[in-house]
């Protein structure tokens, strides 16, 4: 296929060097069906739900067999790119907004607009904003059907907030600002405890010998900051780029962004948040939070079941704090199912994709309490399912209700953007550079985005 030749040459080498041994196949090796569709996903926790969807689909479509294949996150994208180069990609694959732009610009995704029109497929059933994330830059092609959505929230140790004199209701009212941090910073100080048992809001607190940090994180967040700084920057009247999707001019030089980052970094200086070297030491944030090393954690809704499984302490979740804008904020990301442009079975692939985007399948996903389904009516069924895990899932859905969810940025050069913003942001959070250096990084990003595409 000529289009596949556009993919990076380095990936071609990977296609020859890396086999598919890392794959976890969830299906038999052969079938009597006329057509076998390969479907790839990376999240093992979603396998049971999609296994059930596949079984139901095959009952109604006995001529089509769904072969589910699951990889870990990093292997997934390496293998997907390599398989496209080798012209052996899966018929259908789970797509992510951070990778979609690249594959879309390289013409590796089938436009399903014709199928949508022919079938009268209802795109209005999905939560607002999700469908638009998967439209081509020209606005003429639909390159994915939404499968789920996520926002972030403030997970907290229930015992610790009670000991500090806070109630769960108090956490819904927390506010932050870049001047003094507001009631949110007061809360984080109260939740921080040094090795002598002194809290961060008490005299004699030793910020250099902390036993429990008020809040944890895993890395500096690069140019995305989904579970790091995004709730603060976005609630400080800041936007990633001039438009979304397909932004070309980014705003990391914006005063509101840089003051939000400066305040976030100040939590490290005050001892309420660990240094970058500690946060990125290799010990997972969920493990540290579950063991009591962090009192709170900004984390995604997709990790509720993981938090429940790993925490040795009682845990619940509150929404992100209200910012200077007068609203709270969260990135609202969403995954989609896309069809590889080189599939030999586009009609059958569309049948499977449209079934995964049906209430029958998404209600199954809702009952699994792993992610929020993209269809609005299915989301309503997921909230009580998460409640059975002990979480107040409305802490995530409030962003839909209040319109404070900001759709995840989609560009065709996210890897290049990341290569600029990752070291720049890490230098700032590590104390090696002033926040003003992000202005130069932003200039590099915009110059890169302005270049003619190869």
UniProtKB/TrEMBL annotation:
Chief localisation class: other
PANTHER family according to UniProt: ARABINOSE-BINDING PROTEIN-RELATED, SN-GLYCEROL-3-PHOSPHATE-BINDING PERIPLASMIC PROTEIN UGPB
Tell me its family. Belongs to the bacterial solute-binding protein 1 family.
GO cellular component entries: cell envelope
Record bears the keyword Transport: yes
Q: Which UniProt keywords apply?
A: Signal, Transport
Check the record and name the InterPro entries matching this protein: Bact_solute-bd_prot1, SBP
Record carries keyword Transport:
yes
Subcellular location per UniProt equals: Cell envelope
* Tree of life domain: Bacteria
This chain belongs to the protein called: ABC transporter substrate-binding protein
Annotated signal sequence is 1-21
PROSITE patterns to which the protein is assigned, alphabetical: PROKAR_LIPOPROTEIN (PS51257)
Q: Where are the transmembrane segments?
A: none
Q: Name one Pfam family in it.
A: SBP_bac_8
Recall the taxonomic lineage recorded for the source organism. Answer: Bacteria, Bacillati, Actinomycetota, Actinomycetes, Actinomycetales
């Amino acid at each position: 296929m000529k289009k596949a030749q556009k993919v990076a040459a380095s990936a071609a080498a990977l296609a020859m060097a890396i086999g598919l041994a890392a794959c976890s196949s969830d299906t038999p090796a052969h079938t009597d069906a006329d057509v076998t569709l390969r479907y790839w996903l990376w999240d093992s926790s979603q396998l049971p739900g999609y296994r059930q969807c596949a079984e139901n689909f095959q009952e109604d479509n006995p001529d089509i067999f769904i072969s589910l294949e699951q990889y870990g996150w990093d292997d997934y994208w390496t293998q997907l790119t390599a398989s496209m180069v080798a012209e052996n990609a899966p018929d259908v694959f789970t797509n992510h907004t951070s990778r979609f732009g690249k594959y879309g610009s390289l013409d590796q995704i089938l436009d399903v607009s014709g199928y949508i029109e022919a079938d009268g497929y209802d795109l209005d059933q999905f939560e607002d904003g999700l469908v638009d994330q998967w439209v081509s830059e020209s606005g003429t092609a639909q390159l994915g059907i939404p499968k789920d959505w996520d926002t972030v929230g403030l997970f907290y140790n229930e015992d610790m907030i009670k000991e500090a004199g806070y109630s769960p209701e108090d956490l819904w009212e927390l506010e932050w600002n870049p001047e003094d941090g507001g009631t949110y910073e007061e809360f984080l100080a109260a939740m921080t405890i040094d090795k002598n048992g002194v809290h961060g809001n008490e005299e004699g607190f030793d910020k250099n010998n902390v036993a429990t940090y008020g809040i944890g994180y895993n890395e500096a967040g690069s140019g995305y900051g989904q579970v790091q700084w995004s709730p603060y920057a976005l609630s400080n009247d800041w936007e990633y780029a001039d438009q979304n999707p397909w932004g070309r001019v980014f705003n990391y030089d914006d005063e509101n962004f840089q003051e939000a980052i400066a305040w976030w970094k100040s939590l490290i200086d005050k001892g309420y948040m660990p240094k970058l070297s500690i946060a990125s030491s290799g010990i997972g944030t969920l493990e540290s939070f579950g063991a009591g090393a962090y009192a709170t954690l900004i984390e995604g809704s997709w990790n509720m079941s993981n938090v429940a499984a790993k925490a040795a302490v009682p845990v619940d979740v509150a929404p992100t704090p209200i910012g200077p804008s007068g609203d709270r904020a969260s990135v609202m990301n969403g995954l989609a199912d896309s069809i590889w442009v080189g599939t030999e079975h586009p009609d059958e692939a569309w049948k499977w994709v449209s079934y995964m985007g049906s209430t029958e399948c998404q209600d199954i996903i809702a009952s699994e309490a792993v992610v929020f389904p993209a269809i609005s009516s299915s989301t309503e069924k997921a909230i009580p399912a998460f409640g059975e895990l002990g979480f107040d899932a409305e802490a995530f859905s409030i962003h839909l209700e209040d319109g404070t969810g900001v759709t995840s940025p989609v560009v065709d050069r996210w890897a290049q953007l990341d290569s600029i913003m990752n070291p720049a942001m890490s230098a700032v959070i590590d104390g090696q550079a002033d926040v003003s250096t992000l202005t130069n990084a932003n200039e590099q990003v915009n110059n890169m985005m302005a270049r003619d595409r190869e």
